[in-house]
């Protein structure tokens, strides 16, 4: 990108910031207190200006700066461990409604991706988009055999725009880390880095198609969810083609009720499906919101099913994090705050030297007011957020995957309670948690582990007698050696070798000094004259003394 374009973009951003009174916010930073008088010298501040609250202004600025900043604000809203509550709640209102780009341009992008005309690829292609977002827009089409599909096309020249704005974000984040009091603790450059990775992943339609295929495979045997089929022969880096879903939007509560859908059962099933993704598959849809979630009402032969349609952002947890998260949930339900504190230390989420009793007291102070309410009124997402905020006081570094989980959980809860306000999320989540604990912690875990390891054991078992005989033979002949690449062991070896070299130097030096003393004493009965000593005796004594002193004092020099 040319420096001129970068400069023009900076000027455009500056105009937006000034329009919303951000000069006042910037000059209120303690670091700039000495130049705050500049605020009154700027012409646009000479008249009376009424500004909205800071959170409203930040949201308005992001919306005006464009889709990439809107997306950044959406992701930033999930980092409630970093933001004050008012700003986080306002950023959560950001909507990814972006004007569509012309259908003619979308058609040209599709033809360029296939190297053929649209008519040669599709039976029909609607140039009017069904929906438009910051990354891509969606068009309806038909394959040559008549199957209804949607074609998702990435916006043109988007990568260039992203590079431009990401560079500015890094610049601002670096300034914040250097000159803002909380900059080093909150690590804004790391937040921008997470955003860059997320946004670049969303540009890759092959990656999104793979996410959808994995989710579909995970739920092949389930009746409560329908994941659209991906048409791989038609999918490219910037074009995704998948089955078109016909259903009702999850927000259409009246329409769902009119279609005979049991809203309580639907809400509970949605919670169970989400927790199944987290704890059974450790691969979950992390961008659940009404814009990309539909419901296909049952018709007697088929049950009511959820139908997600956007797979750009997916989350995953390691088995390690899964287990500790599940055990934390169980400990919370039992109000065993001591166990919650211990789990955080054992998992390494907080430093090992943390006093468990102090952390336990802090967790109890946060959770007791929450659990004093009926279970149906307790939000798992809010509880996790409170826990993260408390753990930050004990130097817990919040992992991105846990924050993504917490944000998604809040969205899933919101949708579930919109369908059925009396929803007891804990009760709906219990089957998935119990299945996980039974499969991963109990006897079944041992059985499954044995089944997974059995083929490897069977392959190596015939070799064991021969390997044992070879080991015994080497041990008998003194040829058995143990090698390790442990850094601590290597350091110990180096220290031992260094000690041996130093000991040898001391012995040689002292030996030379003793020899010089013997030669000095052999000069006769009379007291020898120092000047009459041979040069060799002098060299032997002084050299030996110098070598001994060097060996003993080497580390202090």
How are the secondary structure elements laid out?
Layout: H1 3-19, H2 22-27, H3 54-65, H4 67-77, H5 85-91, H6 103-114, H7 118-121, E1 124-125, E2 131-132, E3 136-142, E4 148-154, H8 158-179, H9 183-186, H10 188-203, H11 205-218, E5 239-243, E6 248-249, H12 253-258, H13 263-279, E7 283-285, E8 293-296, E9 305-308, E10 314-316, H14 319-333, H15 337-346, H16 356-371, H17 380-392, H18 400-419, H19 425-440, H20 443-460, H21 464-476, H22 487-521, H23 535-553
Antiparallel strand pairs: 1-3, 2-3, 3-4, 4-5, 6-8, 7-10, 8-9
Short description:
With 557 residues, the chain is an alpha+beta fold. It is built from 23 helices and ten strands.
How does this model look, in words?
- It is built from 23 helices and 10 strands.
- With 557 residues, the chain is of the alpha+beta class.
- Among the domains are: 51 residues, no CATH class; 199 residues, no CATH class; 64 residues.
- The strands form 3 sheets. Strands 1, 2, 3, 4 and 5 form a 5-stranded antiparallel beta sheet that branches. The protein has a 3-stranded antiparallel beta sheet with strand order 6-8-9. Strands 7-10 form a two-stranded antiparallel sheet.
- Helix 14 packs antiparallel against helix 15.
Name the shape in a single word.
extended
Query: Count of DSSP E strands?
Result: 10
Number of helices: 23
Distance between the termini: 54 Å
Mean pLDDT: 77
**Cα-based radius of gyration, to the nearest Å:** 35 Å
Short key terms for the protein model shown above:
7% strand
């Amino acid at each position: 990108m040319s420096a001129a374009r970068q400069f023009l973009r900076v000027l455009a951003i500056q105009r937006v910031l000034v329009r919303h009174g951000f000069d006042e916010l910037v000059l209120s930073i303690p670091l700039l207190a000495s130049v705050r008088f500049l605020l009154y010298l700027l012409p646009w501040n000479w008249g009376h200006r009424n500004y909205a609250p800071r959170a409203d202004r930040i949201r308005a600025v992001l919306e005006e700066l464009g889709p990439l900043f809107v997306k950044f604000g959406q992701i930033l809203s999930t980092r409630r461990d970093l933001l004050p509550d008012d700003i986080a709640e306002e950023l959560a209102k950001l909507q990814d409604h972006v004007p569509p780009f012309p259908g003619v341009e979308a058609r040209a992008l599709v033809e360029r991706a296939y190297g053929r005309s649209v008519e040669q690829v599709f039976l029909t292609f609607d140039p009017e988009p069904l929906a438009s977002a910051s990354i891509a827009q969606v068009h309806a089409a038909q394959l040559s055999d008549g199957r209804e599909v949607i074609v998702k096309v990435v916006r043109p020249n988007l990568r260039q725009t992203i590079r431009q704005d990401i560079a500015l974000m890094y610049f601002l984040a670096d300034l914040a880390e250097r000159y803002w009091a909380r900059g080093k603790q909150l690590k804004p450059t790391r937040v921008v880095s997470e955003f860059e990775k997320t946004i670049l992943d969303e540009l890759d339609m092959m990656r999104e198609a793979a996410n959808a295929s994995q989710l579909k495979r995970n739920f092949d045997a389930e009746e409560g969810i329908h994941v659209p089929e991906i048409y791989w022969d038609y999918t490219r880096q910037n074009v995704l083609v998948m089955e078109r879903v016909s259903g009702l939007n999850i927000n259409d509560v009246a329409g769902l009720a009119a279609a005979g859908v049991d809203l309580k059962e639907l809400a509970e099933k949605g919670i169970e499906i989400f927790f199944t993704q987290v704890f059974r598959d450790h691969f979950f849809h992390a961008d659940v919101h009404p814009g990309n979630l539909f419901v296909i009402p049952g018709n007697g032969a088929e049950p009511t099913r959820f139908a997600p349609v956007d797979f750009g952002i997916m989350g995953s947890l390691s088995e390690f994090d899964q287990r500790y998260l599940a055990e934390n949930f169980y400990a919370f339900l039992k109000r065993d705050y001591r166990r919650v504190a211990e789990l955080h230390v054992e998992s390494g989420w907080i430093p090992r030297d943390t006093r468990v009793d102090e952390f336990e007291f802090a967790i109890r102070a946060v959770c007791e007011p929450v659990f004093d309410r009926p279970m149906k009124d307790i939000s798992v997402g809010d509880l996790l957020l409170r826990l993260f905020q408390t753990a930050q006081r004990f130097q817990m570094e919040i992992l991105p995957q846990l924050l993504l989980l917490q944000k998604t959980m809040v969205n899933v809860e919101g949708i579930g309670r919109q369908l059925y306000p009396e929803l007891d999320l804990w009760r709906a989540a219990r089957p998935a948690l119990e299945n996980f604990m039974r499969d991963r912690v109990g006897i079944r875990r041992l059985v499954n582990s044995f089944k997974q390891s059995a083929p490897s054991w069977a392959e190596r078992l015939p070799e064991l007698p021969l390997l044992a005989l070879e080991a015994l033979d080497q041990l008998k002949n003194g040829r058995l050696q143990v090698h390790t690449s442990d850094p601590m062991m290597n350091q110990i070896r180096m220290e031992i070798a260094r000690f041996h070299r130093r000991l040898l130097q001391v012995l040689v030096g002292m030996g030379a000094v003793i020899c010089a003393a013997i030669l000095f004493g052999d000069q006769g009965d009379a007291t020898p004259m120092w000047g009459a000593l041979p040069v060799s005796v002098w060299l032997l004594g002084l050299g030996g003394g110098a070598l001994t002193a060097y060996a003993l004092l080497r580390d202090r020099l």
